[in-house]
Amino acid sequence: MTSRWLIVILVGMISLLLIIVKVEANLNSLRYGHGAILINKKMYIYGGRKVNSTGDPYEMVNTNLINEFIILDVSKSFKTDNPPWVVNNNNVNNPYLFNYGITSNGDDLMILFGGISSNPDSSILWYCHTNSTLELQPSTVNNEEIPSRTLFGGMTSDINNTYIIGGADPLTPSSPSQGIITIGLSSIESDIAISSFIRANVASYDHTATLLDGKVYIIGGVHNDVEYVDMSSIGVYNTKDSTWITWRANGDIPDGRRAHRAIGYDNIIIIHGGFGIEDNVNVDRNDLFKLDVSSLTWGKLDIAGQDPGARYSHTFTLVGNHIIGTYGLSTTNASLSNIFILDLNTLSWSNEYNPVSKNSSSSKLLLIVWAIIGRSRTRKIVTQE
Ligand SMILES: *[C@@H]1O[C@H](CO)[C@@H](O)[C@H](O)[C@H]1NC(C)=O
Ligand SMILES: *[C@@H]1O[C@H](CO)[C@@H](O)[C@H](O)[C@H]1NC(C)=O
Ligand SMILES: *[C@@H]1O[C@H](CO)[C@@H](O)[C@H](O)[C@H]1NC(C)=O
Ligand SMILES: *[C@@H]1O[C@H](CO)[C@@H](O)[C@H](O)[C@H]1NC(C)=O
Ligand SMILES: *[C@@H]1O[C@H](CO)[C@@H](O)[C@H](O)[C@H]1NC(C)=O
What we know:
Layout: H1 2-17, E1 30-32, E2 35-39, E3 42-46, E4 49-51, E5 69-73, E6 78-79, E7 85-88, E8 97-98, E9 101-104, E10 109-113, E11 116-117, E12 125-129, E13 137-141, E14 156-157, E15 161-165, E16 179-184, E17 192-193, E18 195-199, E19 208-212, E20 215-219, E21 233-238, E22 243-248, E23 250-251, E24 261-265, E25 268-272, E26 275-278, E27 281-284, E28 288-292, E29 297-301, E30 315-319, E31 322-326, E32 339-343, E33 348-350, E34 352-353, H2 360-384
Parallel strand pairs: 13-17, 23-29
Antiparallel strand pairs: 1-4, 2-3, 3-5, 5-7, 6-34, 8-11, 9-10, 10-12, 12-13, 14-15, 15-16, 16-18, 19-20, 20-21, 21-22, 24-25, 25-28, 26-27, 28-29, 30-31, 31-32, 32-33
Organism: Diversispora epigaea
Pfam families: Kelch_KLHDC2_KLHL20_DRC7 (PF24681)
Keywords: Kelch repeat, Repeat, Signal
């Protein structure tokens, strides 16, 4: 654990000194700490750090940061053995970044914040209008007290603002940032983006952040190098009144984890993967849980089919009634896939993606499935008690 953490610090420091090694585009190359976002029926996958094998992902001969832009058209069906994704590396000034945050305003704006960059002087905030260009523009935040963030794990936006909650300072990573940054999206393209910093007892990083109905739910992560956040403790930032509170969830509580990923819709958040610690040994997680935020109940999800294997620092993106995952790391599995799909209609892993509009009848069906799973879990827990 400690050594893994030290290495993350090292990555931060070494990256300040490194000369960029240009890495050839190869969609089968493993990577982690990249980001993915769905914008207008395209999934944009950006940056990260390439690794040779899962054997020693932290070797520091070179950091192999990339600025590769991968575009996946999700308006059409595809199979995972031949996804129709294309690489766009036309913009040489796009930053080499990993462990950063990615979000969108719900239209065509893609926004990146923080992370570890190969260029310490580069901006901490970037944006582009994906309808017209994939050239990222640097932006400046108004408040000098707003530091960069790494491992903050999830960044989320509504149409007006981007929210960055907790996280770690790239240079002093074991002290989590005790606060919430809000960046006004309408100002992002002006010379100075207007942002505010609210002190709050967030105290974690490498968690996930999911926005549902005006509330950002913070799940998992670590308080410091060795202390995992109790998964029954859910941090909630209410964007309407700027309050931060901690809620207590019940049900089938997942094991502590970091570098996991989350998606949310309706009243449901689904988390996947990550890694945790058991008997002082790092354990990669290969499980999924759902949190019903209306009843604050956790339930384990049993997904049929061949799973993609334990992993962390991957991406996990809700696309209609599917979740599309990409890349990531595992210390226990050398055969990680570059893309994998969870079909929410059938609750199974799938090697096929079919775009379906998430209409009311299908989402009702989905809710019934969740409700059945949720109830049987609850019953099990009740009888155990
Ligand atoms: C992978 O390993 C080979 C041989 O050790 C090395 O030449 C290459 O640069 C490495 N690539 C990455 C992405 O680390
Ligand atoms: C971007 O394109 C989508 C359609 O693909 C359109 O709905 C949207 O209004 C466009 N946004 C901007 C800012 O041009
Ligand atoms: C966005 O800002 C407008 C104007 O201030 C406000 O009416 C609207 O409720 C805001 N939307 C969200 C999601 O905060
Ligand atoms: C490794 O991942 C593959 C899928 O990529 C999976 O089939 C296999 O079960 C995993 N092995 C272990 C030991 O987790
Ligand atoms: C709505 O969803 C159902 C079930 O998934 C599907 O059969 C139907 O074709 C969908 N309707 C539309 C208009 O997309």
